[in-house]
Amino acid sequence: MIYSWQKSQWNNIMQRKNALPHAILLRGRMGLGKNHFALHLAHTLLCQQANAGGACGVCASCVWLKEGNHPDFKLITPEDESEETATKKKTSKKTQISVAQIRQLYDFLSLSTHQVDGRRIILVSPAETLNLASANALLKMLEEPPANTMFLLVASQPQRLLPTIISRCQVLDFSIPQKVDAIGWLAEQCVQNAKALLEYAGGAPLAALQMQDQLASNEQLIQHLSKGERLDPFTSAPLFLAEGMERAIDVIQKWTFDLLSYRLTQSAHYHSQQRQALQALCKSVNLGGLLQLQRSLTEAKKAANHPLSNEMQLENLLLQYTHVFMPQA
Predict the structure, then answer these.
(1) Which of 177, 217, 212, 220 is nearest to 196 (CA)?
(2) Who wins on pLDDT, 289 or 302?
(3) Interatomic CA distance for residues 6 and 14, integer angstroms
(4) 19 contacts 53 by C-beta, under 8 angstroms
(5) Is 122 exposed, middle or buried (0-12, 13-18, 19+ CB in 10 A)?
(6) What's the rounded Cα separation, in Å, for the pair 307 and 312?
(7) Is the N or C terminus of the chain more exposed, i.e. has fewer CB atoms within 10 Å?
């Protein structure tokens, strides 16, 4: 089943089921279930007894898909490894889809479909992890699409895709659901503090669901940031680093975003429950320093997975944060 907030997109596709394009781009912020939707669509289109609700779940095609070995379905992700590299020690998580992965599709496409008059489906996710070489290789396929083949591209950062790839796809947009619907769904999942989690996740229900174990640690980090210029960067940095560099930067970014938002509009996007602290800090915040800090955080996040000098970098960022509240000479 698809999620309740995806019904309009699903109806859109089902109404055109017999006349779908060769490539569809599913785009929207992370945490909205786009991968789930794409897999549900692939299963439905490959199912031998599908109905408007989706795949039957019992035919041979559905069984193959459940077992992960359907001959007419191919999933391309950054985690894929070839036989040659699979035996080597893995030192880091792959963050790009390689050109070799795309070129391997030629062998897949050279075979006839398993079902007579059937279709192949290639799911690329997240599509923004295509590098320039792999993106251009995929573009050639989209420009001259193979017969009976559908490409499903899933992107949470579509701005990173080549414009020419986007132009070869029909776009299916996913937006955040109504707050009351999202909170209701989270309540059905037995999530505590659903409203605060949904706010911190920017309205994305699945992201909020994944964050529920992080709420307590987030609140501890926010308590440190609430100290403003009184924060001690050197004792606070290890606490932030314990959450991982990427998440530590994300916490600081969201807090400084709300500092700026509250300073300019008296409203908070991620931390409405900390309005009192934001209001107090905004009285002494320096806008120029805050904007410079946000630029520093953006640059730091690009290298967040680099293992060297993370603690020193966090100390410098937190030190820069304390200076945001000091009078400029």
Answers:
(1) 212
(2) 289
(3) 12
(4) no
(5) buried
(6) 11
(7) C
- Give the residue ranges of DSSP H helices in the chain: 7-15, 34-46, 60-67, 83-86, 99-103, 105-110, 132-143, 163-167, 179-188, 194-200, 205-211, 215-225, 233-241, 245-265, 275-282, 287-302, 310-323
Which is nearest to 209 in space by CA: 40, 32, 34? Answer: 32
Residue 126 and residue 98 in contact, taking contact as beta carbons nearer than 8 Å:
no
pLDDT for residue 81: 43
Burial 12-48 (b: 16+ CB within 10 A, else e): ebbeeeeeeebbbbbbbbbbbbbbebbbbbbbbbbbe
d(C-alpha 300, C-alpha 317), whole Å: 9
Angle, vertex CA 196, rays to CA 192 and CA 201, nearest 5? 105
**Is-contact 314 237, C-beta < 8 A?**
yes
Nearest to 41 by CA among 71, 63, 69, 73: 73
Question: Quick one: DSSP state of residue 246?
Answer: H
